[in-house]
Each structure stands twice: as structure tokens, then as C-alpha cells.
Write a structure and sequence with these properties.
About 30% of the residues lie in helices and about 35% in strands. It has about 160 residues and is an alpha+beta fold. The strands form two sheets. It has a six-stranded antiparallel beta sheet with strand order 1-5-4-3-2-10. Strands 6-7-8-9 form a four-stranded antiparallel beta sheet. A hairpin with a 2-residue loop joins strand 4 and strand 5. Helix 2 crosses helix 3.
Length: about 160
Amino acid sequence: MFEKYQRRLQVAKIKPGDGSALPEYRMWHLFSRSLFFLRLPPGSGSRHVLEVDVRYLADSTTKDGPATLYRDGLQVSRANSLPATFPVSGGVIQVAMSPYGLKRMHYVCDDGSEHPLRPHPRSQEGLRSRFGRRFPRTSSLVGAMAVVLLLVGLAVSIPQ
């Protein structure tokens, strides 16, 4: 019951879009913007491609807001704050952000199954996933080194 109430509040934050076209993703957007795609599954009754544009530095005062939903390249709706839930045919798209980046970007079907959205190949997430597929051992090593550096920083800061 709490989830339905929470979803209803998040859907209420969604504003209608203005029908503008999806801006092209450029390399200089690497640290300020992410773009995710979803081709709706055949059982949803729709054959559209949905894109979610997330801008890290945006807030409620900017034109598009932090998250914007596009259908086939045209703006359908936008959220002025996160977390947000975009209603789409066959379910909803849930978007949430933490202080360190995106926390959640999933398509939740009406039956409860969840599917993550696919990142743009040139976004941070897309580059990271491609690196992990092409160099799995190196990717694991980078992750292990990050954990070790975190633990060393924690061990140094505790005595202070």
C-alpha cells in the first residue's frame, strides 16, 4: 500500500512536455547529462522508443528539469524533482538520483517485473558498461582498487 501511495505522489510531480525534439548527446555532456533508452516490450501494446534525459546540474528552476521523458525523439513529460515516476504504456519508468549519481533507472511493468534502461553508448554509464564487457578482468581490478582506496581513506580518517 505504501508503494502505491509513493508512486502516486511521484507521478503527481510529472508535468506535460512541450513536444520539443531530443537534443543530441555530445561528448561534452559526459559529466552533466545522461541519456537512457527503452524499447517497449511487445506485450505492452506499443512499439515506441522511450528516452529519458537526466541532467545532473538541473533543478526545478531550469526549463527542462532534472529528468525529461521523450517518445520517439519528442518531449512527452518532464519532472521538476527526483525521484520521479513517468507513466508509460504497460507500466512506469522510475528515476532516482543519489548525491553520487543515478541510483535507479528502471521500467516497472504492471505485473511487477523490472527492466533496467539501456544507457547511451557515449554517456558515462555506457562507456563504463562497454569497458566492463571488453575488459572484464581490468574492470574488476579497477573496482577492487576503488574499494581498497576507500578503505585506506577510511582507516586514515578514523584516528583523526
